[in-house]
Design brief:
17 helices, alpha/beta, 9-stranded mixed β-sheet, 6-stranded mixed β-sheet, 19% strand, 20 strands, globular, 486 residues
């Protein structure tokens, strides 16, 4: 990839004012589709939205978009005649028939993030966060640091506000000055000209490999966040993060490492119980700036300290004061179901990390506690668990397995942690009282395996949809069951 230091990160891509009269196809009526369609209509484009579904979920959405002036095709995904731009929903795979047809016809295919970049004001700054785990926490920490510094900042992406909505004037006619942008591998795959001011790849582990066709293309999609002109923030403990920053990033921009021990010049890290900066200081070789205390990071589990350091590096890249980094961490509210302490009983802590929906997230969670009764299982989405079980074996006091793919976990435990007692729970106890759920049986089994000093940890390493609506419901039912047990 050729890099040119002269390319400034905030030049809008060509085409920001060229939507008037163009026929644009919006692929998919998922989360990003409707706001994209509305923005395109507002910019004078002719819009056709297509979605292969035709059910009670999409019909009302389709009706509202028709009312707004879009054409909507349900139950099929034809490429509209004469269209010269397709804006795809992030989850659509590159081998989807419509996208294959578009590519074959020479029609440009972009995603919602790329469109947002082309439409944003030239002076709006983007700080981008991607990685397998920790993205949402990091962008929310970053938003808190920026706001503590008095900046007009907003966290966007998978955190409530879509990127496309954040580049347009709000009701007051103003646009936010700076965005903390959470980006998925899907969104980066469909982005060609996005140039953040600074960006980080927090970590890389197996996820969405079915979509990308392997770990290497998945990692390389993440690496696109290190665009020409973008300051590179890399996790020194993660081989892929460092490699992508070095190989896929711009060699003319600073490369800032973050680490959980003493930082070298040009890095941020931890000295005793302090988060310190040796990157954005006048004399990195001889001086360091204190940013915060470990106690300011909640919870202070190692992977969460890494998230805080990544956020701090991004904040410092735009000149945020050290005191604002600390104030931001103090103001930050950890999200629900992310290593959330539930209760203590008989010397046993109960912790809800239902958001650990893949093995990498579960590994970070398990690594935060010395002695664990682990509640795991659900839909593994093809992910391997042997490495996870091997890593955690010496801290497991017991395991309670649930869900569709629990057999894979049982096999891994039998092979790599044969002395760990395992209980499998298929459903609620047959004589369960009214209002009790499968989680009551799970929590009871975990409590029977736990002793004083242990942590009963819900960190499933798997998706939840086989037994629950989503991971928040899984976590909520766990907490309710703990409450009933106590």
């Amino acid at each position: 990839m050729a890099h040119h230091a002269s390319e400034t990160p905030n030049d809008p891509a060509p085409g920001s004012d060229e939507l008037e009269g163009r026929l644009v196809c919006v692929a998919g009526l998922g989360v990003s589709g409707p706001p994209v369609a509305r923005v395109l209509l507002a910019r004078g484009a002719r819009v056709t939205v297509v979605d292969g579904r035709d059910d009670d979920t999409v019909r009302p959405v389709a009706a509202a978009l028709r009312e707004a002036g879009a054409e909507v095709v349900l139950g099929g995904t034809p490429l509209p005649e004469g269209c010269d731009l397709v804006v795809t929903s992030p989850g659509w795979r590159p081998d989807s028939p419509l996208l294959v047809r578009a590519a074959g016809a020479g029609v440009e295919v972009i995603g919602d993030v790329e469109l947002a970049w082309r439409l944003k004001p030239a002076d709006q700054v983007w700080l981008a966060v991607t990685g397998t785990n920790g993205k949402t926490t990091t962008v929310r920490m970053l938003e808190a640091m920026l706001r503590a510094d008095g900046r007009d900042a907003l966290a966007v992406g998978n955190v409530g506000t879509s990127v496309i909505d954040a580049v347009l004037p709000g009701a007051d006619g103003r646009v936010h000055d700076i965005l903390a942008v959470e980006l998925s591998s899907f969104q980066l795959h469909w982005s060609s000209s996005v140039r953040p001011h600074a960006a980080t790849v927090l970590n890389i582990a197996s996820d969405h490999l079915d979509w990308h066709g392997g770990l290497d293309p998945y990692a390389r999609a993440k690496g696109r966040v290190f665009a020409p002109g973008t300051i590179r923030v890399a996790n020194t403990a993660d081989a892929w993060s460092t490699r992508l920053a070095e190989e896929d990033g711009d060699p003319h921009t600073p490369l800032v490492g973050f680490r959980l021990d003493t930082p070298r010049a040009g890095e941020v890290g931890v000295v005793e119980d302090l988060l310190v900066d040796r990157a954005f200081v006048a004399e990195p070789h001889s001086s360091a700036e204190e940013l915060a205390a470990l106690a300011d990071v909640r919870p202070a589990a190692p992977h969460n300290v890494a998230n805080a350091l990544a956020a701090a590096a991004l904040a410092r890249s735009v000149g945020v004061a050290p005191a604002s980094v600390r104030a931001g961490l103090a103001a930050f509210e950890p999200e629900p179901h992310r290593i959330a302490f539930v209760a203590t009983a008989g010397g046993v802590d109960y912790v809800d990390d239902s958001k650990a929906t893949n093995p990498h997230a579960a590994a970070a969670s398990l690594g935060a506690y010395p002695s664990v009764v682990w509640i795991a299982g659900g839909l593994l989405k093809g992910a391997e668990v042997d490495e996870l079980v091997t890593m955690a074996a010496d801290r497991l006091r017991g395991a309670v397995l649930i869900g569709a793919d629990r057999a894979r976990l049982r096999e891994a435990l039998a092979e790599h942690a044969p002395e760990v007692p395992v209980v499998e729970v298929e459903g609620p106890a047959e004589d369960a009282p009214e209002g009790h759920t499968v989680m009551d049986a799970v929590v009871a089994a975990a409590a029977s395996l736990a002793e004083a000093g242990d942590t009963v940890l819900l960190a499933p390493a798997a998706a939840s949809m086989d037994m629950f609506t989503n991971y928040p419901e899984r976590g909520r039912l766990f907490a309710e069951a703990v409450g009933r047990l106590l």
